Amino acid sequence: MARTATRQKKTKFQSDQDELKLRAAWLYFIEGLTQEQVAQHLGISRIKALRLLAATREDGTVQISINAQAEPLLRLQRALERHFGLFEAIVAPAQDQSETSIAAVVGHATGRYISERVSDGLTIGVGWGATLAACMNSLSWREVENMTVVSLLGGLTHAAAHNPSAVAWRLAEFYKTELFQITAPIFVPHEELASALWELDDLRQLRKRAGEVDIALLSVSDISKQASIFRRGILSWEEGESLRAAGGVGDVLGRFVDAEGTVIDHPVNRRAMSINPADIRKVPKVIISSGGVRKIHAIRAGIAATNAKVLITDEAAAQAMLELPPLG
Questions:
Q1: pTM for this structure?
Q2: DSSP at 295
């Protein structure tokens, strides 16, 4: 009789270990991967994969069928991975489709994901957005040594909330790590000023450091009046309309990209004090954490722009994204 995987009496993943166990069981028992392939896919040692699989049998994870509520999410995750060439997709169930609720749910999943991956000597580059701000509320403490946080974009001279540079600061503060910041507004008045600032030795070194991080954690947004960057007046909606007219579909690190992830030729982009998405394409692990059906075109563009291999999103956005053209 075929064996499959389930979590009894659970409607969602209750811990990172439970999730890892369920993913291992799915890959091994459902998709027929070898133990070595399971280990490679999950980025763990073969010994740990063996222990996880053994635990699934001992604690009842492996039974006859997959829990009806867990199975659709796992299938959706695997479909996203194939559709966009991802190494890993994490889909969080979000019944409430309000922007605040989606940010909270996706942010929670992101906080759990990052907490399991912080380690001694890690360098992590960080973007901004409501989802990443929510992520900071779900971090789990562990003591790490020689970890470094690099902010991938500038800040605001006046901000009541959601300063673009604040997410990196909060992550560094939480884990008591070194922090490198772009000490300039995210958008300066003139592109000549932006060019001059990037010539400063400190910012030139930070730009180089940003391309050498181990992990880049980003969020993306669309170009709409609902997007934070326009709603909060960081850019005017007239500029937003101009960006859309130039082919822009989304914002990745304060740089506006077209549907295929190319940074568009526009004055706003030339005024940005942020890392160009193309500069992090070689980062070993780029994570995009973003949800909401409104943002699906921006998420797809963000994956293309950064060569992201990990996506953390919500269920409704994941289903809608599968209707978009795959990435070649």
A1: 0.80
A2: G
